[in-house]
Each structure stands twice: as C-alpha cells, then as structure tokens.
C-alpha cells in the first residue's frame, strides 16, 4: 500500500464484514477509539442483552427495532429516536417484524470522556433547522456528543471546507456525495463512513441530481448544548 492509500484509509477505512450465528450481518469501520457498525437484522431476530466497556450510540435506518437499554424499552423507528448505552449498561434488541432492520451503532471508549445518558437512555429529536440554505439538519444531543442527520441537496449542494476542534464522523445513508478530508476525496454511497479528527480540513459536495442524506457525529457537540440536568446517568 502506498503512503497515499494509507492516509486515504485513515479517513475512509475499509469495511470489515462480520456474520453472527443469529443471522445478523455487520459492516465495521474503525479509526482510533471509535467503531462504526452498520447492522442488518433479519426478521424475527433477537440480539441478546450484553454489555461492554465502550459507550454505544445507535439509530435505526430502516424497519422497526425494539431496543432495551438498562430497564428501558422503546420501539425505534427510522431516524426518529436514538439511544445511548453508557459503559457496562446492558442493552439488547429484537426485530419482531417480518422486515429486515438496518441500524447504525457507534462504539467508543476515549480517555477523558464522560459517557452520560438521559435517565431513559433514549434521545428524542433536539432540533431541526437549516444549517445552510436548503441543507436541513436534525440533531440529537447529549453532553459528550451530538448526532446530526443532514440532507445535502443535489446538483452541487455543498458543505464548504472548514475545520474545528470537534472530532467528526459520518456515514452516508442515502444518495451519494463526494467527501474530502485533508485533500483526500472519497465517493460516499450507502454505508461509506468517514472519520475526521479535530482540526482536519473537510468539506462535501453532492454532484448528483438527487439529494443525499448522512449521519454525522461530533465529539464534543458542535452546534447545540443541553441545559444541565439534575438527574443523569453517568458512567
Ligand atoms: Fe453493544
Ligand atoms: Fe465539520
């Protein structure tokens, strides 16, 4: 592998496929302390409760998933709610339907981060607004992270180049766009994931006629802050 390819692979890591005994198929990408998993859960499939040292954030892209974190259970519908399982909090899920479920999970364990969660472990939409003209974004927010669903309009819709102190990770979930980090460009399509460390220059443009959609995570939050709450689960 050339040095150029190695750098490209740092920002846009190769996907590793895992197949589980219960039929779940996962596509994993990793940079540093963070793993992004795209899971395909067949109909009538149970993911047994488990826990691990990493914090886990998740959101459903397709279908309906009954998710349990700690003592809370909620039906997750596409892009309408998210969950946080802090370190060592048990979590499991069931697809009780006749349709496949596709979900994204992010596992992360980084020195110095405190993995808070709301008492229910589930996050509702915090806010929806236009980040740039025509670029509608929806936010889910917790103290240590912000999840942003962004629509990039077609025919040249763009996120101009910029850099910031926040780490940023993103996954294309429909359509396609060209993502550039530090001069390295990848054609994003469903499931392609980018990892952008603090202060790395990045931007995106959608040259296709149709709009595209992506999920982007910021550590710590970039656009919104929660008001301090008295009751919060900490790990
Ligand atoms: Fe997990
Ligand atoms: Fe950014």
UniProtKB/TrEMBL annotation:
GO molecular function, a single term: isomerase activity
InterPro entries, alphabetized: Bacilysin_H2HPP_isomerase, Cupin_2, RmlC-like_jellyroll, RmlC_Cupin_sf
Protein EC: 5.3.3.19
Cupin type-2 domain ranges (all copies): 39-106, 151-212
Primary enzyme class: isomerase
Keywords on record: Isomerase
Organism domain of life: Bacteria
Coiled-coil region list: none
Transmembrane feature ranges: none
Protein name in the entry: H2HPP isomerase
Organism per entry: Bacillus safensis
The encoding gene: bacB
């Amino acid at each position: 592998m050339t040095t150029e390819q190695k750098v490209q692979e740092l920002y846009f890591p190769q996907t590793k496929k895992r197949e589980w005994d219960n039929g779940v198929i996962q596509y994993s990408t990793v940079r540093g302390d963070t793993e992004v998993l795209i899971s395909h859960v067949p109909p009538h499939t149970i993911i047994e409760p488990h826990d691990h040292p990493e914090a886990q954030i998740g959101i459903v892209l397709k279908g309906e998933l009954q998710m349990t974190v700690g003592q809370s259970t909620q039906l997750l519908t596409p892009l309408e709610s998210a969950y946080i399982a802090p370190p060592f909090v048990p979590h499991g899920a069931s697809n009780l339907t006749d349709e496949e479920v596709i979900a994204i999970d992010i596992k992360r364990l980084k020195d110095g981060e405190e993995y808070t969660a709301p008492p229910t472990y589930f996050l509702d939409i915090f806010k929806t607004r236009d980040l740039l003209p025509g670029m509608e974004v929806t936010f889910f927010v917790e103290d240590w992270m912000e999840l942003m669903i962004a629509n990039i309009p077609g025919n040249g819709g763009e996120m101009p180049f910029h850099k910031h102190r926040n780490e940023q990770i993103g996954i294309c979930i429909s359509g396609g766009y060209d993502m550039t980090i530090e001069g390295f460009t990848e054609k994003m399509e469903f499931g392609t994931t980018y990892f952008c460390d603090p202060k790395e220059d990045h931007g995106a443009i959608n040259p296709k006629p149709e709009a595209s959609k992506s999920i982007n995570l910021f550590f710590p939050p970039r656009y919104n802050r929660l008001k301090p709450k008295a009751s919060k689960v900490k790990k």
